[in-house]
Specification:
52% helix; globular; prephenate dehydrogenase (NAD+) activity (chains A, B); homodimer; NAD+ binding (chains A, B); Rossmann fold; alpha/beta; 6-phosphogluconate dehydrogenase C-terminal fold; 13% strand; eight-stranded mixed sheet; oxidoreductase (chains A, B); 12 helices; PDH_N (chains A, B)
């Protein structure tokens, strides 16, 4: 394995380039982005060695790291361009629709549907971090539909990047992600909007917002270009998650309104269990 | 100034003790907690030199760092116990009701209403951190009602702890805090509860939850004993904030349902402004 081509030189694509360069310095990394400025930055930062609008025929691996609403067309176009020993994979946060759309494609075996559970609220090539993937989960969907040899090549590089592999049905993936990722992005965007709409005097927000607010609203800084398509494409699951959240909020609000302090404490004690489930660092 | 007495040896009281010990090693710090185990831990950790159920008459400063529903009775009791050169202040996250309740008290001038904008999702004396207050804001309400000399003593110690003083009307304080603190705690508790209720298989949450979810749900680990009384006492403002948030969520949900990607992106672009307002660190 010698050549990787990355389409979409933002946070994920750029971080994959940095991590791969570190783990496998011999790899030749090329890339492309629809934004010429991103290409220039990626070249300057050394994320890619050169920019190519079409990957070389002997490229081993093509990564698609663009917004989810661009992925189907890009995947079909890329499968048409590549040689027979090339694997294509996308990093999209939704997997079900794309897997269904591509299922009958003659080169389906040259595609691997993956989703790295990694990110920050920042976007663009400058946001790339060499350790973004380190120790995190890579979800792989419909692994049985991908050629064994090509898949093995992908697993090698995932291992080199210290990713932990998890295998999952695309429908399950999209439902679970709606609750543990897409929902928290929506709640954070809306929290930011609510507070901005209320508090015209920005100085007051600045002064009184503690680290708790900063943590809760952090994802409100995320890219609308990335998240708009995710919410729309995963609409059914995101709506289920959002409606459930709104129902839970109404219960909480009603308990406050009723002055039901014991009921409130019971709700919060249940929520406290997140402490045992997520063993995350501070 | 030689003696400080701290009632409530949890995160805030304990952190104040640690920071004061560092900034003013000559200070004698005594304390009390309704939980005997907290007293034992505070003594063992050296947060306090000894435990006293009633502060010495020559104590310079008494801090009340207990849940907000206990503060009025505790403040009245403490004002009755202290000498005439002692200042009492509370660290409660709501200020309006307490300021109104205490306004006619004959020793009103010996009370200073403050609220340190500092905290973590952890509670109890073991959660105390020496640098919890460092560089953060201390909000002071109705400063004109406190004796000038006693107030000066408080400002000296706030300066020593590197707190930045802000002066504010208690009603304004409670309204703004509802939006920039109490709301984000409510949204985080409810997010935790929603995800726990949905995802019975904890392993799935653990695997697929990225750092974004962890950040957004962090406050769901907060103490119900502390937060129940805050939500109830600041009910009017918290309900305004929660209802506004639910309205904003419904708008966001409706745009997803309608497939209105441009409308969604506009909402998120507005929310992105939080990046300019809050210059917080990652």
């Amino acid at each position: 394995m010698k050549k990787i081509h990355i389409i979409g030189l933002g946070l994920l694509g750029g971080s994959f380039a940095l991590a791969t360069k570190k783990a496998k310095p011999e790899m030749e990394i090329t890339g492309f982005d629809s934004d010429e400025q991103n290409i220039a930055i990626a070249l300057e930062m050394g994320l890619i060695a050169k920019s190519l609008s079409v990957p070389d025929k002997d490229t081993d691996l093509v990564i698609l790291a663009t917004p989810v609403d661009t992925l189907f067309d890009l995947l079909v176009k890329t499968l048409d361009q590549i040689g027979e020993h090339t694997l294509v994979m996308d990093f999209g946060s939704t997997k079900d629709q794309l897997c269904r759309q591509i299922t009958e494609h003659p080169k389906r075996a040259q595609y691997l549907a993956v989703h790295p559970i990694a990110g920050t609220e920042n976007s663009g090539p400058k946001a790339a971090k060499e350790d973004l993937f380190d120790g995190n989960v890579m979800i792989i969907c419909e692994m049985e539909k991908t050629d064994v040899h090509l898949k093995g090549m992908a697993y090698d590089i995932f291992d080199a990047l210290n990713l932990r592999l998890r295998f999952m049905d695309p429908k399950d993936h999209d439902l679970h992600l709606a609750f543990v990722s897409h929902l928290s992005h929506a709640t954070s965007f809306v929290l930011g909007k609510t507070v901005i709409d209320k508090t015209a005097d920005e100085r007051n927000i600045l002064d009184m917002a503690g680290s708790g607010f900063a943590s809760t609203v952090r994802l409100a800084k995320s890219s609308p270009e990335m998240w708009g398509p995710i919410f729309i494409e995963n609409k059914t699951n995101v709506l289920e998650a959002l409606n459930s959240y709104i129902d839970h909020l109404a219960v909480f609000r009603d308990k406050i309104e009723a002055g039901d302090i014991q009921g409130l404490k019971d709700e919060m004690l249940e929520a406290n269990k997140i402490r045992n489930i997520l063993n995350f660092t501070e």
